[in-house]
Input
Amino acid sequence: MSFPDITAELAARVPGLRGRLAANEPLAPLTWFRVGGPAQVLFSPADEADLAAFLAALPEEIPVTVIGLGSNLILRDGGVPGVVIRLGRGFNAIAMEEGHRIRVGTAVPDMRLAKAAADAGIDGLAFYRGIPGGIGGALTMNAGAHHGETKDVLIEARAVDRQGRVHVLSNADFGFSYRHSGAPAGLIFTQALYQGRPGETGAILAEMDRITAAREAAQPIREKTGGSTFKNPPGDKAWQLIDAAGCRGLRLGGAQVSQMHCNFLINTGDASAADIEELGEEVRRRVKAASGVELQWEIRRIGLPAA
Output
């Protein structure tokens, strides 16, 4: 599928734009599932000021979608209309501050933050080693693993709204709950400030090694996957419900429920986005029929189905 090219029109609205605009840019290579169609426009801003100027000039009728590292995402086969924004090198700085605090750009991978904190002798952020995404996504969904969550360590975050205005949100402003942030819709997070505690580098790195070993033993991390597919219902574990419903190893086209961990879906090599999403919906149907529990998607799904 191909969209109308509007990059020249958008560039003309911001003469000093320093970021990159690309028309009909393939997005599948930017996702862990390696599926999906193109972005009508992919914008990679140079920094926060560049992002703010672009958004301030962007017509309201043009939709905006933000993607991060693509680890928790099903990008549909028809692609994404409007502008897709992906933050890059201008948003990957990490700086240590007094009081065992760390300021980090939202394009930084979670595991890189964990390593930087460990190297600086800052404890409390090692759990990020077990989360296959970036800081922007962690803020958006209160990412957590191994007995830690974003809400436990975040002090504040910077964001740009759809009109190009910059905001600073406190932890309380997010209204965090399990795998959810109640921050206002439409914000694009650019930076986060975290609070750690004193620690010993060797001990923190050992904990990160333990987390890594646990992930490798239990999760299909070397497959084309998107991480945990469904949220754990209150009092239950999604994988146990999926297993009890007979879905372990279930296939649809090129998509499969992982044999290793059945809350993971896998692209076995030739899956379409539709295969993966439809398999997920079939899993939801079977779990509902077997247990009465309606699983909720944890993986984000964006874009249009194939025409």
Q: What stands out?
A: The chain has a mean pLDDT of 95.
